[in-house]
Each structure stands twice: as structure tokens, then as C-alpha cells.
């Protein structure tokens, strides 16, 4: 009798074990389907955005810093966990009232630089495929824009979008050699400081001779923004450097960083006092098919907005802050006009908006990062940034167009 009971128990155990295994297999299949479904949703979502021509918006919240004072991120920022809003929603709490926002992607303070880059890597690939691509970071001073765009290149895990994007482009361009592709890369870098364009790669930067007016009061080199018949933008007399390696670009980025205007304010120890524009022009030709592509990658770190009452700015710093706020206000005016589908869009009201015209009103693939500080004292600025970002996300700017044609007979490309 005991042997029968033991045998029966063993059979029941094996049966239950089989049931558990089946349930685990079903769970694994379901999890795979959920991931596949989410990937399909993202792909369809991106396709819809491209068909509509929307500007995509990613939101990123930086971690709390020692200088932020008392308070925690959860006191101001929270993230909804519903299926619809997971990874896309963010809630801001102000005076007991919750303000919900939804974007194409939301990164919490725990997101790494690699996590962020993965989400934009396909957009970067588009530049190599022959599209105009523009990615820019917007937010109040000290919200993490420069860290997102540049990061700390000396620390591999903290490298920002610019160095990571360049690494990807050079790696893929090398891998495409076996398919007959050769590429030529050209780089330019500028800043817009007090409504003046400065060439950050000019050999005369150290002597300030590229400024509109030098310290001595004499006129120096002046730069003019121009648009050609094909919708391309260029700046007259701007230094353009042919590059063949990541090492070359890294050296140029270091040169530009040393030349860029930064300063200390009450809100930020290292506040960028200018808008930084990095442009990579890509020309590719396939020796076998004679197909030619021309892509552009614009990566832009905007200066941060500041409330004059909080910045503590005086003298030259006050002038800088006013110029920054004015240009960002002009950007806001452009976005509002685009959202309302007005006949006249005031692109010419500032150097920044005129330079961004092809990105905001043309056939570019455009993405904006809205960067936020989780500090409770910045909740007002965070709400303003998020409301602006929502308007940006609603703008339809046109369907992206790939720039491709058959090679001209005498075309010659380097860096192959």
C-alpha cells in the first residue's frame, strides 16, 4: 500500500512538474510576444510620425545633484505605470496638482547614456542613408543638455550623443565598404553668442578676429546664414574640415569646447552662454550601382533659459542671459506658428531660428530632447519646458526626403 502511495505521489509530482513547465513556456512565449508587440508598436509609431512629418520629442530627467538642496525627485517627478504610458509618460507635481505629459520616449534619472543613444541610433543611421537629421537639446540651464549631447568623452560610459553618433557613423561606413560604398565626411562647428555667429574651428579664434566686432572695436569677419534652392543651409566663410577618423573629430570637438562661451551663474557653475551647432555632412557613392547619397547630421546643444530673478546675472552675464532668452522666445514663436499652420513662420526673427529653418520647416528628420531638473525649486521652469515640448511634438513639418541621385561622372570621394 505504501509503495502504491509513493508511486502515485511521484506520478502526481511529475504531472504537476509538467504543468508548471508548460506554464513557464507559455509565460516565456507571452513575454516574447509582448516585446515583439512593443517593437512593432514603436516601428508603426515612428512610421506614422514620418508620414505625418512630426517632430519627435524625448524627455530626459537628470539625477538630483548635491547642489539641488533638500528634496527628492519623487516629490516633483513621477512616471505612470499604465501600459499606454509606460516609458512615454511623465507627471509633474506642483502645489498638490499633478500635470501629466506624454512624449515619444521618457528617460528617468536612472537612464544611462547608452540607454538614450540606443533610442536615437536609427535616426543617426538615416543621415548615412541620405537624409537630413537634426537632434537638439532644450531646457533650462543646469538641466543636463550638454551632458546629454556631449557627456564626458574621457569616460567611455559617459560619452554623450555626439561622440556616440560619430562612432556609429564611422563604424557603419567602414562596414559598407564591402558593398561598394565610399564616404566623404565634413565637419563644421559654430556657436551663436549674443546673436553673433562664431566659427569654433577658425584658426583665428584665439585672436578673436572672427567676431563681428573685436575688443578693439574694429569690424572682424561676419558670417551670414544662407539657404540654397535645394533647401540646404550654409554659413558663409564658415570653416569646414574634411575628416577621415574619429580621432580627427575628437580633436576638433576638443578645440570647439575650449573655444565655446561658458560662464558661471547662480543656477549653473558651467553654464553654456551660447547655442552650439555641430554639423556633419556626409557624401556617399556606390562604385557598383553609381548611386550617390548626401546626408546631414545636425546635433545642437541650446543654451539654457534662465529667469533673470534667479540667475543673479549682471553686466555682461545679464546681456548674455537676455540674448539667450530672446532667441529661445523666437524659437517658441516659430513652434507656435507651425502648430497653428500659419502662412507666415517668423524664422528670420533670430539667428537660431533662421539656422534651424530646414530642420523645423523642411524635409528633415527632427528630434528634440527636453531636459528637466528634478529639483523642486525648478518645477515652474520644468512645466514651461514640458508645455513647450508638447507643442513641438504636435508640429507637422513635412515628410522627410532622402537625397539621392546617380553619380556625376567626375565625382571623386575621399576617406574610402
How would you characterize the overall build of this protein?
By secondary structure, the protein is an alpha+beta fold. The protein has one domain: Kinesin. Helices cover 38% and strands 23% of the residues. It has eleven helices and 17 strands. Strands 1, 5, 6, 7, 8, 11, 14, 15, 16 and 17 form a ten-stranded mixed β-sheet that branches. Strand 9 and strand 10 form a beta hairpin. The longest helix is centred in the N-terminal third of the chain and has 51 residues. The chain is globular and about 95 Å long. The C terminus is likely disordered. This is Kinesin-like protein. It comes from Cannabis sativa (Hemp). It holds the Pfam family Kinesin. Belongs to the TRAFAC class myosin-kinesin ATPase superfamily. Kinesin family. KIN-14 subfamily.
Amino acid at each position: 500500500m505504501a509503495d502504491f502511495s509513493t508511486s502515485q505521489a511521484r506520478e502526481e509530482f511529475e504531472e504537476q512538474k509538467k504543468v508548471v513547465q508548460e506554464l513557464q513556456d507559455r509565460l516565456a512565449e507571452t513575454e516574447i510576444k509582448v516585446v515583439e508587440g512593443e517593437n512593432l508598436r514603436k516601428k508603426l509609431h515612428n512610421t506614422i510620425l514620418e508620414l505625418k512629418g512630426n517632430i519627435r520629442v524625448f524627455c530626459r530627467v537628470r539625477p538630483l545633484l548635491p547642489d539641488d538642496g533638500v528634496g527628492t525627485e519623487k516629490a516633483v517627478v513621477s512616471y505612470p505605470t499604465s501600459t499606454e504610458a509606460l516609458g512615454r509618460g511623465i507627471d509633474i507635481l506642483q502645489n498638490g496638482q499633478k500635470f501629466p505629459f506624454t512624449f515619444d520616449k521618457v528617460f528617468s534619472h536612472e537612464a544611462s547614456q547608452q540607454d538614450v543613444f540606443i533610442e536615437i541610433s536609427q535616426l543617426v543611421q538615416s543621415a548615412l542613408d541620405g537624409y537630413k537629421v537634426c537632434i537638439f537639446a532644450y531646457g533650462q540651464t543646469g538641466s543636463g543638455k550638454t551632458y546629454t549631447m556631449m557627456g564626458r568623452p574621457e569616460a567611455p560610459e559617459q560619452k554623450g550623443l555626439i561622440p556616440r553618433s560619430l562612432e556609429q557613423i564611422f563604424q557603419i561606413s567602414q562596414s559598407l565598404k564591402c558593398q561598394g560604398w565610399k564616404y566623404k565626411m565634413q565637419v563644421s562647428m559654430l556657436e551663436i553668442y549674443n546673436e553673433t555667429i562664431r566659427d569654433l574651428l577658425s584658426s583665428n579664434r584665439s585672436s578673436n578676429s572672427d567676431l563681428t566686432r573685436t575688443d578693439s572695436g574694429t569690424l572682424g569677419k561676419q558670417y551670414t546664414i544662407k539657404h540654397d534652392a535645394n533647401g540646404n543651409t550654409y554659413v558663409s566663410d564658415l570653416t569646414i574640415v574634411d575628416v577621415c577618423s574619429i580621432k580627427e573629430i575628437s580633436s576638433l570637438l576638443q578645440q570647439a569646447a575650449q573655444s565655446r562661451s561658458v560662464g558661471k551663474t547662480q543656477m549653473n557653475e558651467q553654464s553654456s552662454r551660447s547655442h552650439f551647432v555641430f554639423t556633419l555632412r556626409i557624401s556617399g557613392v556606390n562604385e557598383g550601382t553609381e548611386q550617390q547619397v548626401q546626408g546631414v547630421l545636425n546635433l545642437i546643444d541650446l543654451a539654457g533659459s534662465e529667469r533673470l530673478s534667479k540667475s543673479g546675472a549682471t553686466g555682461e552675464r545679464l546681456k548674455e542671459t537676455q540674448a539667450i532668452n530672446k532667441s529661445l522666445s523666437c524659437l517658441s514663436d516659430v513652434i507656435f506658428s507651425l502648430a497653428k499652420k500659419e502662412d507666415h513662420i517668423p524664422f528670420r526673427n533670430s539667428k537660431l531660428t533662421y539656422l534651424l529653418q530646414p530642420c523645423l520647416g523642411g524635409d528633415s528628420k527632427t528630434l528634440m530632447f527636453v531636459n528637466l531638473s528634478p529639483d523642486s525649486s525648478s518645477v515652474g521652469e520644468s512645466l514651461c519646458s514640458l508645455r513647450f515640448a508638447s507643442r513641438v511634438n504636435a508640429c507637422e513639418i513635412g515628410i522627410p526626403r532622402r537625397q539621392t541621385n546617380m553619380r556625376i561622372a567626375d565625382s571623386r570621394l575621399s576617406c574610402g
